[in-house]
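Support request, please re-run this one:
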Amino acid sequence: IKPDISIYHDSLNGPIPTGCNSSTLDMHIEFKWYNFNNPFPAPPPEDWNQATFLGSSKNQKDTLGQIRAYAAVQLASQFRMHTFSLYVLHDTAHIIQWDREGAIITEPILYNVDPLLTEF
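Re-run finished. Output below.
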């Protein structure tokens, strides 16, 4: 797997792995630039209770599959109940908690305005 950023815990013994070592990975971050890749498009406010928040285009599904695969490989190679990842698009980010059943995704975080990511 090749996430854009691989984060390892500071207690990792030995050198930091080159590339991505899913058996010691603590968290991954994926960056995308184009809106057509965003797997979590926000529905209009009037449709929040009725619309899905998952994109249905090929590019959106590919991006979701990519970050889902990173989490699946990490969970399969570690003895964990859950893991976190971060998906960044332009000036927004989503914190994602993955477990073996699925994922919990935050609403878009405007990280230039909202200090939530620094608190996370």
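The helical segments are 58-77, 116-119. The longest strand covers residues 25-32.
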